[in-house]
Amino acid sequence: MRKLLIVGAGQLGSRHLQGALVAQESLYIVVVDPAQESLIIADERSKQVKWGNKNSRIRYSTKLPESENFDVCIIATAAQVRADVTKALLITNNNSVKHIIFEKVLFQKVEHYSEIQALLQECKAQGWVNCPRRIFPTYQELKHHLDTSQPIRMTVTGNAWGMACNSVHFIDLFSYLVDRADLDVIKVAFDSEIIESKRIGFYEITGEIEFAIGNNTLRIESGKTLIPSLQVTIENGHIHHIINEVQGTWLYNNGAVSTQHSYTPLFQSQLTGANISELLVSNQCQLTPFAESCSLHTPFIKVVLEHLSKTLNVHLNACPIT
Questions:
Q1: Residue 36: exposure state from Cβ atoms within 10 A (0-12, 13-18, ≥19)
Q2: What is the CATH architecture of 137-265+301-309?
Q3: Which of 131, 240, 261, 306 could lock 172 by a disulfide, CB 3.0 to 4.6 Å apart?
Q4: What is the CATH code of the structural domain delimited by 2-131+269-286?
Q5: What PANTHER family does the entry give (predicted)?
């Protein structure tokens, strides 16, 4: 029986649990959360899916395990505690965790990126970051239509889509489409007004930011309208792709012919089982490798941290987004 650890049993962690239970492998799953009510919700959700293996077992705990071996660990805590949880896990279970899947935003403090990367190497653990659009069938098929010998211009526009906490998803998608991760910030035009998140102590932003990888560009925009909308446009030579993630459509135009397809996102409960199975079988995964994701996270974290510090008129050493 293979062992899985899920740290954080909240909204996302409980969906990871559902996804894990769909896997065909026999799994011994340890779910950890300091809040007993979160564990109760996770247990309820575990009963809402059809288990892929009837021999799988779940153990719930309010404390991190000590001196246990795990094939895969999923750290689905909030961003502000994720680095500390990772350190505690790896130090108390030294060299006994093979793979760790991290949620994004990875960490709020810039220095944590290099610290955790060094710790993973020291403990011989492989890290992966859960930015799953690169696994979505629509974006995988779209990539086959791209000519990387020509510039790729990607634009993300919308309203009320969570620019601070979700931009990393599109930065990662951009990196996946161009097959590179050497990201540069070339323009920052955030709005001066910031938005207090529904989660106390966190903030959201609107405005515009632009990145480049080589001669490829990514522009991310968020307006102030409260009605949610989200569209991804990709221009590559004479070919245009327009994905409306709210309406679920993908429009393909090559200059002569225009066709419309369905855009179908995958839920976390549909993804985790496949990720775990892939890691157990091949020690590889379609998710973003940790070091690569760090290079995509840090330019964004730095500019948002600077913007929030300036706007709030306070020196922040941690970026209050999650």
A1: exposed
A2: 2-Layer Sandwich (3.30)
A3: 131
A4: 3.40.50.720
A5: BILIVERDIN REDUCTASE A (PTHR43377:SF1)
